[in-house]
């Protein structure tokens, strides 16, 4: 059912009365009670056939609903979480939520493991691209419509990671030491909104510890805050392998251990029940919540989850293209360099490692097989034809890049249930040479000992020495024309796949552009790790000075469009970045191209801030994030003026990593991540201590200009103002309101080495105007956060009014404000 909004009253009804659910719980045996609180496999809860209790399927988000396989049916790929927040447009985010709900249903899933609403504490966080913002209010007001959109389609959101999962470094064991006030005023705010406003139906706990206990064992957070204080009535599940106890997790209020079969529940929980070491009342309460959840999300009506299919809807593509363009942030535009006038362009140099194919998503569990992939180079050449010429410029890989689809022939996958060398069990058609199995590949192919042979052809696009690489969790070999090229047997775990896979093994081979070669991968699942996986990389010969070639092309062109950035090698689940510098020689590339080019447009395709030492040498800078599958066409729309660059920064861009508030506290020491900066993260720190950022929070240029005037506070407490388009092109603006408390008396001046962490100002409201024509004005009304002038009291453990003069300021970013 594709509602895309409107009346959603048919979803999440509760036809079974509480008494009926309680009666069903009473019929459960001890084994069934314990079984219900653990998954049956990687992607399903446990059903109980004799009582008609179904399984429910969950699927990874937040970049799309992947389904149960990393290599299964393709899915729509939406802009990353930070890109969605960069739109500052809750209505647009809600539409994306509807699409994700529909996509989840197409995969037979009733639970989407999304959104990710941790904060950007440091710009090098490995999963920052999944998260939304450094600011709790912007994160909350992005998450709420996301959840509402998904759940309106009959799919429960499992909002994550509760709480403090702000680093990937040793994430399973690090103890996040966050003081009570900072926790309440920052890190818990988006989760509170997800519960009290969006009514999220599930919460996923974080991997890390929080002030001592693991998040999955944290009774104070799960029961006292989440359930008792906020009134959460859904289920709480662990992150995958994120539960570390049998008794403590149950008594803390964690309902579901994932994945299954369970490690700490199942037989262990049965024994704990029989021994009386776990409170049977807590077990029954969790089972009751599980059954109510299954009822509310339609699992009883669904029965067994349906087959997984791919959707490729033109309406969806149009929405994703719109959202990608709306997220792109124009950071510099000297002398109106953008938008480009297509008829005036005669020779355009398209340069950079992210021009082909571009990076549409980050790495890790957010990965999906995109149903469509619009590359920047293709989109630009579609408009300009042979007026556009391409040069790669430099290499940026951390591991060898996955071979482009146009180099590969049809991919055939043969499975051997008892391992390589046994009888063929089944065959299927694949989509590439990157595969991952977290559950059995098929009913007749168990996960523990299967073998697989993947066969295709490889047609090189250049002659010379090619480098092939293999990364695996298991044992693998690459053959070309039946010759072993790479063999990683005997390699040690620790270099890939969340630390459970092997480091990349590489080798070289001479290939001729005039030939097509047979390429085969043989992979054997071993006991290494908890799943099976391999990835093949291929690097073309590099026989020339790539930077020099790009500079030569730029020298003889009218304009250079340089597309640089990161990729899923550098921004991914499982590890943090170590720098905000662009990988490889990209900074040199931009600087040298700019030194000879008549005009230089830089497009930065990354999920998090990067340094820009060449900033003042180029004419324009457009930041695109990881914008989803319609990247190329959306980028061309913005470059050529068919769409405005709608984004505004949801995070502060620093001049250097040393300039960031958490720098002195990261990485952590002795297993403890001390949140020593307290409430001063992001712009709050820059604005409080007077440090100048590279680009301020909320900043973003337009192709036109705006004036905000006649601001005041209405009798109902909302802020009103007039916004006028004072430029020559249509456009929209984001009006932002910040609250300041002058000389607060209830700050804590002696608790930190650097004095008080009371922020100079904080975002308390915003709105995006409709598109305004040149000279057109509109009156806006902005709701103010009820806690605009409140702080958390550590003595009363409640919200209290700050003492001092309260001021509201309005403007277009945190460094461009005037008092209302």
Give the key terms.
820 residues; alpha/beta; six-stranded mixed β-sheet; six-stranded antiparallel β-sheet; 18 helices; 23% strand; globular; disordered N terminus
How are the elements arranged and paired?
Layout: H1 18-26, H2 30-36, E1 58-60, H3 81-86, H4 90-106, E2 111-113, H5 136-151, E3 156-162, E4 175-177, H6 180-187, H7 189-196, E5 202-205, E6 209-210, H8 219-229, E7 235-237, H9 247-252, H10 267-275, H11 280-296, H12 299-302, H13 314-327, E8 329-333, E9 348-351, H14 376-384, E10 388-391, E11 411-416, E12 426-430, E13 434-437, E14 451-458, E15 464-473, E16 475-480, E17 483-487, E18 493-496, E19 501-502, E20 505-511, E21 517-524, E22 532-539, H15 546-555, E23 559-565, H16 586-596, E24 600-605, E25 620-623, H17 631-639, E26 672-674, H18 683-689, E27 706-713, E28 719-725, E29 734-742, E30 762-768, E31 777-782, E32 790-793, E33 798-801, E34 805-813, E35 816-819
Parallel strand pairs: 1-2, 2-3, 3-5, 4-6, 4-26, 5-7, 9-10, 9-23, 23-24, 24-25
Antiparallel strand pairs: 8-25, 11-12, 11-14, 13-22, 14-21, 15-20, 15-22, 16-17, 16-21, 18-19, 27-28, 28-31, 29-30, 29-34, 32-33, 34-35
Helix pairs in contact: 1-11, 2-10, 4-5, 4-13, 5-7, 13-17, 14-17, 15-16
């Amino acid at each position: 059912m594709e509602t895309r909004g409107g009346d959603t009253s048919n979803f999440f009804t509760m036809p079974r009365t509480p008494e009926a659910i309680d009666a069903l719980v009473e019929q459960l045996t001890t084994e069934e009670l314990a079984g219900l609180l653990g998954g049956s496999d990687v992607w399903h809860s446990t059903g109980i056939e004799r009582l008609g209790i179904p399984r429910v399927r969950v699927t990874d988000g937040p970049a799309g609903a992947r389904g149960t396989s990393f290599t299964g049916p393709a899915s729509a790929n939406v802009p990353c979480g930070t890109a969605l927040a960069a739109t500052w447009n809750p209505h647009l985010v809600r539409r994306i939520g509807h699409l994700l709900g529909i996509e989840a249903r197409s995969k037979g899933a009733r639970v989407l493991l999304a959104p990710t609403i941790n904060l950007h504490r440091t710009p090098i966080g490995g999963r920052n691209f999944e998260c939304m913002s450094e600011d709790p209010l912007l994160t909350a007001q992005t998450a709420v419509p996301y959840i509402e959109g998904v759940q309106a389609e009959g799919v429960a959101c499992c909002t994550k990671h509760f709480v403090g999962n702000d680093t990937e470094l040793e994430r399973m064991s690090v103890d996040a030491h966050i003081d009570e006030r900072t926790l309440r005023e920052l890190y818990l705010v988006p989760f509170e909104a997800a519960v009290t406003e969006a009514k999220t139906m599930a919460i996923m706990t974080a991997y890390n510890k929080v002030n001592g206990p693991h998040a999955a064992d944290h009774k104070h957070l799960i029961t006292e805050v989440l359930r008792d204080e906020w009134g959460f009535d859904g289920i709480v599940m662990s992150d995958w392998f994120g539960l570390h106890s049998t008794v403590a997790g149950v008594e803390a209020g964690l309902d579901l251990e994932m994945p299954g079969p369970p490690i700490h529940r199942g037989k262990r929980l049965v024994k704990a029940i029989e021994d009386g070491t776990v409170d049977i009342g807590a077990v029954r309460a969790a089972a009751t919540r599980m059954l109510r959840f299954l009822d509310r999300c339609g699992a009883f009506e669904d029965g067994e989850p349906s087959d997984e299919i791919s959707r490729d809807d033109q309406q969806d593509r149009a929405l994703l293209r719109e959202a990608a363009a709306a997220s792109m942030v124009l950071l510099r535009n000297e002398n109106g360099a953008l938008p480009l006038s297509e008829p005036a362009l005669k020779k355009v140099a398209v340069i950079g490692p992210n021009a082909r194919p571009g990076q549409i998503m980050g790495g890790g569990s957010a990965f999906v097989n995109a149903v469509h992939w619009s590359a920047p180079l293709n989109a630009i050449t579609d408009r300009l034809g042979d007026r556009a010429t391409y040069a790669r410029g430099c290499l940026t890989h951390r591991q060898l890049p996955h071979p482009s689809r146009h180099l590969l022939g049809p991919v055939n996958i043969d499975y051997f249930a008892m391992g390589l060398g046994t009888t063929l069990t089944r065959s299927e058609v694949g989509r590439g040479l990157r595969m991952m199995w977290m559950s059995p590949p098929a009913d007749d192919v168990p996960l523990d000992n299967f073998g697989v042979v993947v066969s295709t052809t490889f047609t090189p696009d250049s002659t010379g020495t090619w480098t092939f690489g293999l990364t695996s969790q298991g044992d693998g070999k690459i053959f070309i024309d039946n010759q072993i090229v790479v063999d990683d047997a005997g390699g040690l775990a620790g270099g890939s796949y969340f630390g459970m896979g092997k480091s990349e093994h590489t080798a070289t081979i001479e290939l001729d552009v005039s030939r097509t070669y047979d390429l085969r991968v043989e992979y054997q699942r071993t006991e290494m790790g908890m799943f099976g996986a391999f990835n093949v990389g291929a690097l073309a010969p590099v026989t020339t000075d790539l930077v020099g070639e790009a500079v030569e092309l730029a020298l003889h062109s009218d304009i250079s469009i340089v597309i640089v950035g990161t990729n899923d090698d550098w921004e991914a689940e499982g590890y943090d970045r170590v720098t905000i510098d662009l990988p490889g020689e990209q900074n040199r590339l931009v600087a040298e191209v700019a030194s000879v080019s008549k005009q230089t447009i830089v497009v930065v395709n990354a999920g998090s801030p990067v340094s820009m030492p060449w900033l003042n040498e180029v004419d324009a800078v457009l930041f695109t994030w990881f914008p989803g599958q319609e990247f190329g066409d959306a980028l061309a729309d913005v470059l050529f003026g068919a769409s405005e660059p709608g984004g505004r920064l949801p995070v502060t861009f620093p001049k250097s990593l040393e300039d960031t508030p958490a720098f002195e506290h990261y990485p952590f020491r002795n297993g403890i991540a001390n949140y020593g900066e307290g409430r001063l993260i992001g712009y709050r720190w820059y604005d409080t201590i007077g440090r100048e950022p590279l680009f301020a929070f909320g900043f973003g240029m337009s192709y036109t200009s705006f004036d905000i005037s006649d601001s005041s506070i209405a009798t109902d407490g909302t802020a009103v103002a007039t916004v006028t388009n004072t430029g020559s092109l249509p456009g929209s603006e984001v009006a932002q309101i910040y609250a300041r408390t002058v000389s607060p008396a209830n700050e804590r001046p002696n608790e930190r080495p650097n004095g008080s962490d009371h922020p100079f100002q904080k975002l308390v409201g915003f709105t995006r105007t409709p598109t305004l024509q040149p000279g057109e004005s509109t009156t806006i009304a902005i709701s103010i956060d009820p806690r605009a002038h409140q702080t958390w009291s550590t003595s009363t453990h409640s919200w209290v009014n700050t003492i001092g003069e309260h001021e509201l300021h309005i403007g277009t970013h945190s460094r461009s404000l005037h008092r209302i």
